[in-house]
Amino acid sequence: MLIDGHGREVNYLRVSVTERCNFRCHYCMPEKPFSWNPKENLLSFDELFKFIKVAIDEGVNKVRITGGEPLLREDLDKFIELIHNYKPDIDLAITTNAFLLANSAKRLKSAGLKRLNISLDSLKPAVAAQIAQKNVLSNVLEGIEKALEVGLNVKINMVPLKGINDGEILDILEFCRQRDITVRYIEYMENSHASSDIQGMHGREILEVIKQKYTIKKVGRQKSSPSFNYEIQENGYIFGLIDPHKHDFCEDCNRIRLTAEGHLIPCLYFDEAQSIAEAVKEDNIDKAADILKDVLANKPKENRWSEEDSEGSSRAFYETGG
Ligand code: SAM
Ligand code: SF4
Hints:
This protein is of the alpha/beta class. The chain has ten helices and twelve strands.
């Protein structure tokens, strides 16, 4: 079992397999021109898997693959299969924008994938294109339907933004309710990369919109989940709200993050990280395990989004995987 410096059990590893993305979401990607890290800096799937095995042997039982856009990385299904075959009861999930999902959902499911979190910020083609800076909606919707068809468990993530998709909070809720899938509204998290014009919505503003149509009741938060759940009294549908500006979920935070270059990050907000790249390239498993334990010993008590002078994270979401 892995225990951090504040006595929390850490059993959840999020692995970014690439920082590259086929979308340019205004709230995630830099406005200014930028260049990707050279491909040769990426760890291979074998190298990432070496570290994942260490983490599983030490007590991790939940692995989420993210990015950038993870489906851009070739042979992702083979990587999923490696992890699944190593420990079939691992809770294995992907977070994706679903643009490339229609063609890969079946292969991913056969490889051992259990769950998918899919970003869906709008059901209007022009708004979706405005946010992602690309015509994306029909592919995304096709990807969602295909994932459901092959039996993957799907959750939807929406980031409501003032003046952009704030009029679609209820539409997305109904879209998910009709398909019996959960939607989680994520408050926009300030970061120094995203467009300065972006204005996110507070959790209470999101709830106000839903309350115009429905009566809602607080259900609470599952242990270690950042999502606070609410139930709609009229039909029993449960949706989630992720509000990073509170840090009540930090008290039982159970997660660490690995970037595609091998940086092990103890908290999404903080810049501190240690590299496991050398250890896995040298096949030095003991060294990788020591780095993992050291990073956990220094995992911060809570994030800093709630602090008044906070300007947000200086690490981009497409690098850390959100
Ligand atoms: N490309 C995949 C996707 O969009 O689902 C995976 C990576 S993306 C960084 C993971 C999640 O982070 C997405 O649900 C996205 O909406 C969210 N995200 C990105 N930037 C964010 C921000 N500034 N505030 C809140 N959520 C953000
Ligand atoms: Fe790409 Fe996901 Fe970031 Fe959008 S949120 S730019 S899809 S990584």
